[in-house]
Design brief:
Number of domains: 3
Distance between the termini: 36 Å
Strand content: 15-25%
Helix content: 25-40%
Number of strands: 16
Shape: globular
Largest sheet: 6 strands, antiparallel
């Protein structure tokens, strides 16, 4: 019997997104599906996985969003393709904007453009969150801000903007107490009027993750960020599974208020002044730390596939609620090894105004101990080493 006969159903996975792409590819392959990886370069590490059955090169959404959408639609035309997985903002933007066209071809377990807009417009998002009793930082449009006596964070109003046919991500600016920024210069830089929020003193950054079925979470997960690419912040390179009822309640309340469908990550910062979880943003797709959830026992890619294709979506008890104990193993950690090296380099070489640099000895000991105690990795796997080796080669010698 041929491989195609044994595995007739296929799923399209955008493969440019590091560990999350790889976690999806490995998970969906374990379901017995044909996995089609799509990337802007053949050097994407996830394409090297032995679990990636086919690879396709598509235009980069950073420069040609329409071409990228068309490439996904072309793959969705294949009779064996059942669905597409959103792993980054351009993915979900393309999928939601043309949801009707995709629905003619494949199952569409993701949000429509109206719900996506509410999540991507941070001003509207924070208004919805406040009405749902989800704690939020003080938020206003930049021109409305009058009090600059405390530290403030100026963010793009939208999670990304379309520039010259591609996707751009304006930078976030942090002001010191008493510093009044050049408002018009920031409006010009971002291409729209951004929002400004009161700074939340850092008591830790946390994520609430879910795949939802029309506002109702099917499966959920939580993590705490332990280390980032730099000691002053950035994407996480080591995170641990947690189970905090207050975090679950805030995440569930917000996703219910948004009537969310499909995957979402809700980011929070714990305010060290009062211990409350303050909303930072919603990522309307799968998240970069997805390998941790899978390692802890929540196979979100499988949940997503089953939701879209009418199977048993979550394999969870029917009475699941925010008060139930976590259906995963807490304390599990997962690393991006290249990111851990970047973190240690930042401790050794960099000074940052808004963060205290830890001692190098303590940082090295913390990384080494966690690697020994929690040997789970975004890329590295004994039975699938090629993605890790390609990632190392890409960063050592450049994408080829």
């Amino acid at each position: 019997m041929s491989d195609r006969q044994r595995r007739p159903d296929a799923v399209v996975v955008p493969a440019d997104h590091g560990g999350s792409s790889l976690a999806c590819i490995r998970s969906l392959s374990r379901l017995g599906l044909t996995v089609i990886g799509v990337a802007s370069s053949e050097s994407a590490p996830a394409l090297a996985s032995r679990h990636c059955d086919e690879s396709r090169v598509a235009p980069s959404p950073g420069t040609d969003l329409d071409g990228y959408r068309d490439a996904l639609l072309d793959l969705a035309d294949r009779p064996d393709v059942r669905t597409v997985v959103p792993l980054y903002e351009p993915d979900i933007y393309a999928l939601a904007a043309d949801r009707a066209a995709f629905a003619d071809r494949v199952s569409t377990p993701w949000v429509d453009s109206d719900r996506l807009r509410r999540a991507q417009d941070r001003r509207e998002l924070f208004a919805i969150a406040g009405a749902a009793d989800v704690p939020v930082p003080e938020t206003s449009l930049l021109r409305e801000r009058e009090d600059w006596s405390g530290r403030a964070v100026v963010k793009p109003r939208y999670t990304f903007v379309i520039e010259d046919g591609g996707v751009a991500y304006p930078e976030v600016h942090v002001t010191d107490p008493g510093e009044r920024p050049d408002v018009e210069a920031l409006v010009d830089e971002m291409g729209h009027e951004p929002i400004v929020q009161s700074h939340v003193p850092d008591g830790g950054e946390y994520g609430f993750f879910a795949v939802c079925d029309e506002g109702e979470p099917v499966r959920t997960f939580q993590h705490r960020r332990v280390r980032s690419y730099s000691y002053d912040g950035g994407a996480s390179v080591y995170r641990e599974a947690v189970d905090i009822p207050e975090l679950a309640a805030a995440g569930r309340n917000l996703l219910a208020a948004l009537d969310w469908h499909g995957p979402a990550m809700v980011e929070f910062r714990r305010d060290r002044r009062d211990g409350r979880f303050k909303l930072l943003e919603v990522n309307p797709r799968f998240w970069g730390s997805l390998p941790l959830a899978v390692a802890a026992g929540v196979d979100f890619p499988a949940v997503y596939y089953r939701l879209g294709t009418g199977g048993s979506a979550g394999d969870r008890p029917a009475d699941d609620s925010a008060d139930d104990p976590a259906e995963y193993e807490t304390g599990v950690g997962c690393h991006t090894l290249r990111g851990e090296a970047s973190y240690l380099h930042s401790v050794l070489r960099h000074d940052h105004d808004h963060a205290e640099r830890p001692s190098l000895a303590r940082a090295v000991a913390s990384v080494a101990l966690s690697v020994v105690r929690q040997p789970n990795f975004d890329y590295l796997a004994a039975d699938d080493p090629a993605p890790f080796l390609r990632d190392v080669a890409n960063h050592a010698f450049g994408d080829r």
